[in-house]
Amino acid sequence: MTLLAKFTRRRSARLRSFAVMALLLLSPGLSMAQMGPDYWKVTGVSSDDHLNIRSGAGASYRVVGMAPNGYVFRNLGCEGTGTSRWCHVETPDGGLSGWVAGRYLTESGAPGHHTSQANDVPELFIRSSGEMEVRFHTGCTALFNSSGRRIGTGGSCSGTQLTRANAAVESHMRESGGHGGTSGGGADVNLSGRGILHGGGGSIDGKVFGHKEGAYAVMISGGTHVITCTGLFQSAPMTVKSQSTRLHCTSGASGTAVLSTNRNGQGATLTFTLSDGEGGYILF
Asked: For 139-163, how does the pLDDT look when each residue is reduced to its tens digit (9 = 90+)?
């Protein structure tokens, strides 16, 4: 090989290396996706909460889905925003993509080949009518009116999926000022209470929250084996003598909760019973 040929080969190799470096610098999204792991796993989220999946890289973007601890996403690349990091992710089947806070992600291997209902991420869609539709990739669909009240469910929906659909709608309504797809004035209701869980034993916490022109969500959580149950009231606490709602729990149980105004007009008491024999009360 002549000296000229060797020089030409070295020069071409240097030019190719420079071109690759330039491509990575000019395409940060590409470089980040290539440098990161193929999959992320959700971690560090409270046991009674879910990780919000947003339409953009920031907390100001709307919630399009929710994922529990342990859920595995495909990595599409991360970017820094101020002191935080947001990652573009996709469900393994490609059915839903969005952005999540990077501090709740850890490197993971590929998910199993089967999809379990526990890891079926709910997608939330706002119809032009203001109704909210929550879909699961296993086929379950739940429909809510603009006030957050569930008005229809698919026959394939499990109790766990309905609980997670309720939670997705409640999260969306809290961030949109209490309405599904609309905004309105008025003060929010945000009550917290504490009580006792019979059957399973232990103390339990309760919350009732929502917008005065919409529905009011109730969330019960705690106990020795930690359960979370949710439902919706149609009237603000203590504006009616008594009202009831259907509960759906993460344990798969369902039941009924009754919220009654105390006789002295100060505060309220919530009593509930579940299909697994548990029950209890919460004082607000």
From this structure: 788 888 877 788 877 777 888 888 8
Measured distance CA(257)–CA(104) in Å, rounded: 33
| Count of residues in the chain | 284
Fold of 188-283: Lipocalin (2.40.128)
Residue type, 44: G
Quote the tokens at residue 86.
Answer: 């947001």
Q: Where are the domains of the chain?
A: 35-175, 188-283
Q: What are the angstrom distances between the C-alpha of 162 and each of 145, 205, 241?
A: 15, 21, 28
With b meaning 16 or more CB within 10 Å and e meaning fewer, what string describes 215-238?
bbbbbbbbbeeebbbbbbbeebbb
Enter the tokens of residue 225: 């084996």
Q: Which of the two residues, 40 and 82, has the higher pLDDT score?
A: 40
Q: Name every residue whose Cβ is closer than 8 Å to that of residue 230 and which is 6 or more positions away in sequence.
A: 163, 166, 167, 170, 217, 218, 219, 220, 247, 248, 249
Q: Give the span between the Cα atoms of 87 and 57, in whole angstroms.
A: 7
How far apart (Å, rounded) are the C-alpha atoms in residues 98 and 50? 15
- Phi, psi angle pair for 266, to nearest 5°: -105, 110
Fold for 35-175, please state it: SH3 type barrels. (2.30.30)
pTM, two decimals, is 0.41
Interhelix angle 28-35/3-26, nearest 10 degrees: 100
**pLDDT for residue 202:** 80
List the one residue out of 134, 175, 186 whose CA is nearest residue 157: 134
Tokens of 37: 């792991």
Would the pLDDT of 178 be above 60?
no
